Amino acid sequence: xxxxxxxxxxxxxxxxxxxxxxxxxxxxxxxxxxxxxxxxxxxxxxxxxxxxxxxxxxxxxxxxxxxxxxxxxxxxxxxxxxxxxxxxxxxxxxxxxxxxxxxxxxxxxxxxxxxxxxxxxxxxxxxxxxxxxxxxxxxxxxxxxxxxxxxxxxxxxxxxxxxxxxxxxxxxxxxxxxxxxxxxxxxxxxxxxxxxxxxxxxxxxxxxxxxxxxxxxxxxxxxxxxxxxxxxxxxxxxxxxxxxxxxxxxxxxxxxxxxxxxxxxxxxxxxxxxxxxxxxxxxxxxxxxxxxxxxxxxxxxxxxxxxxxxxxxxxxxxxx
Amino acid sequence: xxxxxxxxxxxxxxxxxxxxxxxxxxxxxxxxxxxxxxxxxxxxxxxxxxxxxxxxxxxxxxxxxxxxxxxxxxxxxxxxxxxxxxxxxxxxxxxxxxxxxxxxxxxxxxxxxxxxxxxxxxxxxxxxxxxxxxxxxxxxxxxxxxxxxxxxxxxxxxxxxxxxxxxxxxxxxxxxxxxxxxxxxxxxxxxxxxxxxxxxxxxxxxxxxxxxxxxxxxxxxxxxxxxxxxxxxxxxxxxxxxxxxxxxxxxxxxxxxxxxxxxxxxxxxxxxxxxxxxxxxxxxxxxxxxxxxxxxxxxxxxxxxxxxxxxxxxxxxxxx
Lengths: 320, 320
Prior knowledge:
11 helices, Nucleotidyltransferase, domain 5, about 20% strand, homodimer, alpha/beta, 5-stranded mixed sheet
């Protein structure tokens, strides 16, 4: 039995897999972003509900995926905007208190999602992959010869903070022109709000939609407006998609992977985002053979990172 | 005995190493950029000059480094602006005609230079390295866990063609805003020519220097002018260095290597280029631990690629 956990700012998704690799259960529990101890305490009881009268569940290895910069050796979390109270905490000790007999693996959440896609999603059959996850921010993952690239200082695959234009919009990290400042959902909301202040019909339509929603438009609302023919909304996605394509094209020139996987909520806009992305990426790629590298949507959905963390837990056990 | 060759547009450098890894000889022969057969024909005779009366030299493996996109399996060269007549040619067959009893290894020239630096230069002791070679164009190399990253379509490590601003200057590849369009020597010459048309003292100084030289100023002239206090010349290097820093910062965010090595003729400007590069790169890096990653000049000079090709030849033999 192995357990994969994926902790974000609001909840922890989990996937439980038996010895044959079959998924026994999936679910979500609330997370306390200020205190990891608080977040996992009642997980064993909850898992045991599946067991009925049988022996309590003891996962052999628990894989925990977290947003932020992860130190997999010391099982600690560095900079993590979504989990401020978890920064610097010994997550190995926290999990060992809950699962004293289990091994522990810690991994960055987008790395885990990429590993999930590699093992049972859009990346199956490839050994070299790049993933961009367009959520609130933009996270990344890089797989080289079947191994996640974590870097000499746990700083690799921070793909959302490649600077695509030093004069570009301000990013949440404080720099200007990061990919995230165009293609994360915070950036899209901001652009939608700006665009709605315009004078043309498209802007009026966006204002009407925001009024109906009673709040700012999110990327999904914007995609709906675009699908209904609002060209202003389409142009915001075209800009985000083109910048995403610049990043993907650069990554093809650096890494030349077998496939690029685009995941996260913003990617649910589909072709609205992917079409300009592919066009721009292909324009930038130098090596002819790399020009047709597939750029595809993620397949595993919201449980990708928990699935990947579970795979990494299984393989950590197999590897020693 | 192993032979490392590095073929550029004008000449082929060679390094000959004996069974103990000692360098027996280095040198350069002319290259015919339109015909590889023509280029290697008299190499064996030349090598045998070192031998005097002894047996003719038969390298066990010949490592050939070439500028351009290399297919190491088929021993062919793809797109190669400096060696147009070599594109698509079976370089394995060409070399086998000259060295019928030797194994052949083909590698991109900057990859080979990086491998040389890794084995006996600035990258010794590191397993994860990035190299940028600022020559006529800008080439790149990426080493992950002691292996050169070549990519699924021989398109990896084309670091000079990362797009740093889609509105930037036109690059030789046809795109806009590639690193090469700021930090290659063609780009610096162009900027020097533009700058010399100005009205201030700095421009007048550049015009005077170009007149004395009887031709356009090259990066070395520009560095001399900067060293003599010409602020316009310094500002051109500052711009190139800052863009180089943007590229390096992005690469630190993608790969987080142990060290970044800057080589090539343009890099001989030293701190004039490296100081703004380091400043910009460190501003961009997200992971705190990666912020102090050393960004250092290459150490092996013009023979780096031939040395690296020789090491790869030796290791190809050892590996099978």
